[in-house]
Every structure is written in C-alpha cells, then in structure tokens.
Write a structure and sequence with these properties.
By secondary structure, this protein is mostly beta strands. The protein has a domain at 43-139. It is 7% helix and 41% strand. The protein is built from 1 helix and 14 strands, in the order αββββββββββββββ. The strands form 2 sheets. Strands 1, 3, 4, 6, 8, 10, 12 and 14 form an 8-stranded parallel sheet that branches. The protein has a 6-stranded parallel sheet with strand order 2-5-7-9-11-13, with no helix packed on it. It is elongated and about 80 Å long. It starts with 25 loop residues before the first helix and ends in a 12-residue tail after the last strand.
Amino acid sequence: MFTKKTDTPSAGTSSATKPTAPAKPTGTSSAPAAVAKPKPSPSVLSSDLTVTGNLVTSGDIQIEGTVEGDIRAHLLTVGEGATVKGECVADDVVVNGRVVGCVRGIKVRLTASARVEGDIIHKTIAIESGAHFEGSVKREDDPLSGKKKSS
C-alpha cells in the first residue's frame, strides 16, 4: 500500500517527520464538534405583539412590543418602543425602551432612550447620558442568583 522511498527525501524532510495527519487525535477532535450546538438566532417580539406571561430562553431575545411578565434570557434587548412590566434577568441586558420592574444582569446597559422604574442588580453597569432611571443600583458578584446575602 505504501512504498518506502529511500533514495532522496523531498525538500529536506525525512520519512519519520513526513506523516502530519496523525498530529490531530481523531477521538478528541470530533467530541467538541458533537457537543457544540449552533447558536440559535435571537427571538424577536415585534412592536405589534403584546405578551402576558413569563418568557424563558437560554438564547437571545429582543423585545419590540409589550411584555407583562418576567423575562429570563442570555441576552435581553428591550427596544426603543418596547415596554416590559416585570423582572428582567439575563447575562447581558440592554435597555433602549421602558422597564417597570427589577433588572438583574451581569452586564446592564441603559441607553439614552431608556426608562427604568425599578432596582438594578448588576456586576457591571453603564448608564448613558439622557437615560431616565428611578430606583436603586446594587452591585453583586452573582446578580443572577436572586438570593440576598446575609450580613
């Protein structure tokens, strides 16, 4: 099947260093590909949609309409014309519209058009000039847990 060339090695490589294919183990290289799932596209709730109830996703969600209920997501974006009445919990929260309720996130950003009435519990926060905020701001190492620390 394979023939051994002994007369002249090609371009200074020996037959001992020639095979490069086995450098990548086949058992471990296919395992992460099987485990890694493609990232789903973000869910978008359009501006003419009103949802009454809680929303839970492990992916990204963008709200452009009205939600009366709690939202839990990986990335939550509240659009400029959107209104959320309930608790917002996500790794990343970007508020462009109105939120009435508690906001919990590792990274929370209130843009200039944001209107928030409620407490914000965060690890990092950014509040742009022009944002309206009424409530308290508290930094926690794990803002998503929802558990209060005992002193």
